[in-house]
Amino acid sequence: MFPLHRNRRLRTNDAIRSLVRETSLSPNDFMFPMFVAEGKDVKIEIPSMPGIYRRSLDLTVKEVKELWDLGIKAVNIYVKVSDNLKDNTGKEAWNKDGLMQQTIKAIKDAVPGMIVMPDVALDPYSIYGHDGIVENGQILNDATVDALTLMSVSHAEAGADFVAPSDMMDGRVLAIRQALEQSGFHDVGIMSYSAKYASSFYGPFRDALDSAPGFGDKKTYQMDYANRIEAIKEALDDVEEGADIVMVKPGIAYLDIVREIKNTVNVPVAVYQVSGEYAMVKAAAEKGWLDHDKIMMEQLYCIKRAGANIISTYFAKEAAKLMQ
Ligand code: PBG
After folding, report:
1. Residue 100 belongs to what H/E stretch?
2. N or C terminus: fewer CB in 10 A for the chain?
3. Residue 155 CA, ligand 1 centroid: distance in Å
4. Please, what's the b/e burial string for 90-106 (b: 16 or more CB within 10 A of its CB; e: otherwise)?
């Protein structure tokens, strides 16, 4: 008698393992999230995100050149604006000379090939730290969508390749698509944060932008992490409204959702491995409890295996260097 299946035959050595490997990973799969601050020659490390910085525009452009040379072809941009520019309308978000608009222009001037995807949501501009306009303690949907269309068009005018709404208001993808078309920006795409969960994994990001909600939480617009079917509906709705790419967020704890959406929609699926996921790996590695590089690569491969076509990750630069 012998085992009917000797599956180990295909694991005998590295050559055969690489021959039968089902998933491949390259820097082309990555987008790098970047935090931009006002000023010049500013580079401040985010305490809860070792190795990740808030940079002024000059240093951001320098970093983008390095990313391009490493084979990274897309960046997600988040800005930290000063408190005196925040209000409840978010109007600084569509200031044509605002920090985001300047950043988009500067990156496209310096590295024209880099795909620039600015974040579309009001939280960095809101006195309440919410992604929408607030009235009597509620987040207004349709008034916020109007603001997001102005914001998106102003990003397109600055030269953005894609806009990336992360706010979870209803109907925003259709409204943004219409506004872009009407303004002549037919080729500016939409990457929608379609299945974005109300997650505690965003803590370090909110430290980076000083954008934690001033009251309540984000559960009236971001999704309940207990839900699955709702995520599929969100993704299908967004594709129907004109999203070119749909995103799932966070990553590692939500890979079942990634696979389901991948099997359901006919557009590329992006996954955001968020700040808290990054922080956990850094902290455990710092304590010597986990092997940093091995865990980083394992997680990136697993996100890809689950169905991600694109991974937005704070590990992009480190992983690209390791793969060189
Ligand atoms: C805000 C936004 C958040 C993230 C991306 N865009 C935070 C939030 O929704 O509160 C989180 C990303 C991360 O944690 O890395 N619109």
Report:
1. helix 99-110
2. N
3. 18
4. bbbbbbeebbbbbbbbb
Amino acid identity of residue 193, one-letter, is Y
Residue 137 parent element (H or E): none
- Per-residue pLDDT reduced to its tens digit, 163-206: 999 999 999 999 999 999 999 999 999 999 999 999 999 999 99
Active site (catalytic) residues: 196, 249
Question: What is the three-class DSSP state of 118?
Answer: strand
Cα separation, 73 vs 113, in Å, equals: 7
Interatomic CA distance for residues 181 and 257, integer angstroms: 31
Q: Are 235 and 191 in contact (CB under 8 A)?
A: no
Peptide bond into 250 cis (omega under 30): yes
Three-state DSSP at 193 gives: strand
Report d(CA 144, CA 305) in Å as an integer: 36
CB 193 within 8 A of CB 257: no
Strands (DSSP E) contained in the chain are 30-37, 43-46, 49-55, 74-80, 115-120, 133-135, 138-140, 162-165, 189-196, 245-249, 269-273, 310-313
Long-range contacts of 180-186 (CB under 8 A, 24+ apart): 180/152, 180/153, 180/156, 183/153, 183/156, 183/157, 185/153, 185/156
Cα(2) to centroid(ligand 1), Å: 54
Pocket perturbation via mutation, ligand 1, pick of 205, 254, 273 by most ligand atoms within 8 A of CB: 205
**8-state DSSP, 54:** E
Which tens digit of pLDDT belongs to each residue from 224-280? 999 999 999 999 999 999 999 999 999 999 999 999 999 999 999 999 999 999 999
- Phi–psi pair at 169, nearest 5 degrees: -75, 155
The residue type at 253:
A
Query: Is domain 26-323 classified as CATH 3.20.20.70?
Result: yes
Write down the pTM of the prediction: 0.97
